[in-house]
From TrEMBL:
Pfam families: GIDA. FAD binds at residues 10-15. This is Methylenetetrahydrofolate--tRNA-(uracil-5-)-methyltransferase TrmFO. One of its GO terms (molecular function) is tRNA (uracil(54)-C5)-methyltransferase activity, 5,10-methylenetetrahydrofolate-dependent. GO terms for cellular component: cytosol. The keyword Flavoprotein applies. Belongs to the MnmG family. TrmFO subfamily. Its main location: cytoplasm. Keywords: Cytoplasm, FAD, Flavoprotein, Methyltransferase, NAD, NADP, Transferase, tRNA processing. The gene is trmFO. It is an enzyme of class 2 (transferase). It catalyses: uridine(54) in tRNA + (6R)-5,10-methylene-5,6,7,8-tetrahydrofolate + NADPH + H(+) = 5-methyluridine(54) in tRNA + (6S)-5,6,7,8-tetrahydrofolate + NADP(+); uridine(54) in tRNA + (6R)-5,10-methylene-5,6,7,8-tetrahydrofolate + NADH + H(+) = 5-methyluridine(54) in tRNA + (6S)-5,6,7,8-tetrahydrofolate + NAD(+).
Amino acid sequence: MTDRTLHIVGGGLAGSEAAWQAAQAGLNVVIHEMRPKVGTFAHQTGKLAEMVCSNSFRSDDSEQNAVGLLHWEMRAAGGLIMEMADAYRLPAGGALAVDREGFSQGVTDRLRQHPNISVETSEITSLPEDGHWIIATGPLTSDALGAAIRAETGSQALAFFDAIAPIVHADSVDLSKAWFQSRYDKGDTEAERTAYLNCPMDRDQYEAFIDALLAAEKTEFHEGETAGYFDGCLPIEVMAERGRETLRHGPMKPVGLTNPHAPDVKPYAVVQLRRDNKLGTLYNIVGFQTKMKYGAQKSVFTMIPGLENARFARLGGIHRNTFLNSPTLLDDQLRLRAKPHIRFAGQITGVEGYVESAAMGLLAGRLAAAQIMGKPLPAVPDTTATGALVTHITGGAEAKTFQPMNVNFGLFPPVTGLKGGRRGRRDRYKAYTDRAKADWAAWLDAEASGL
C-alpha cells in the first residue's frame, strides 16, 4: 500500500495550514517543529503558528483588496488559519488583527487534537531522500537545513532583513495627547472605528524625531550579510534615510484623522498604535520596525507625544529572512525540481506576509494530498489570489531580480473592457474579485469531485 504519511518541517502558519489541509483530506501528517527544543531569536514559545512580527492579517475587504480576497479564498477552502483568526479577532478598523497568544494556542490545540496529526519536537538538518515532505521553515530556517538546501540547489539562498515593531503597554500612553480613532473612521462597529491609538506631531516635533532617528545607534550586520530590505517591511530609520518626508507620507501620514484635543489643528504627522491583544493592554507601533539598539529605541520613541512615559513590553529587533529563488527551483506544484518528493511552502518560497505564507501552506497541503492519493488536481486559476501568487513565484517573476512579494492586483491577469487609471480602480478591483471568487469556487468544486 502506498505510504499516505506526509511530513511537514516547520510549525509556523504555512506548516500548520498545510498539515490541517492534508489531514482533513485523510492523510497521516507528522509536523516536525524544532521549537522549543531549538529556539530562534524571534520566537518566544514552542506553540504552533506563533506570530513574531505583527498581529495583523491586513485588510479584510474581499471586494477591493487583494489580501482581503486571499482571506476569502482561504475561508472558502476551510482554512484553519482564517478560522482561528476569526475566532481571536480584535477590533482593527477595516483590518483583521488577532490576539496573537490566543490565536497561536487555538491553532496548536486544533492540530494536536486532530486524529491524523502528530507533532515531533525535532530539528530536520538535511533534505530527506524519500517519503513525502513539505518544508515550511519560514524566514528563520535553521543554519543546518539552510546549508542543506543551498548544497542541493547549487545556488546561494537569497536573504533580506525583516524588522520587528515594538509593543507598548496601553496604560502607559498619555491619553491627554493621544486619542482612539481608525483612519477615516473605518469599521462597522465603534470598537473598529476606534481601534488605533494616535499620537500627533507638529512640524518641529517631527523634524526633531527624524534627526534623532538618523543619529541613533543601529544594530550592526554580521560579516558577509547584506541589507537587501523588502520594501513592505523597511526599518523606520531606513525610510527616514530615504528622505525626511518619507515617513510623513508612509506610516506617519496624518490623513483621515481628527485630534479631539485640538480639532482645529491638523497634525503634521501621526504615529499610530494598533491593539495587539484581546485584553487591549498591549499596542504595537504601526510600521515602526527597527534595527536601532534597545537604548536608542527608548530614547527616540519616547520623543513621540503621548509616549513620553511609555513602558515597552517588547522592543524592536531585526532578523535575517531566507527564501528560495523559486522561479528557478520550484515547479508549479511547489515541488523542488531536483527532488520532486519535496515541496516548499510559506515565506521561504518568496511570498511575503502571514496571509500569503498561510495560503501557500494551504495550497501545498492540498497538492500533496492529491498527489499521494493519485488524484491530480487541476491547475489553480491565475485569476484567483492564490493562483496569482503561486504563478508569480514559480515562473511569473523574473528570476534574476526575484524578491519577496505580497499579493496584489498587479499579479492578476487584466480584466478587459474596464477603465484604467485611478478613476476606474473601484470597478476594476470589484471585477478582479468577482472573477476570482467564481474561479476559486469552481476550482474547489473540481478538486472535491476529483478527491
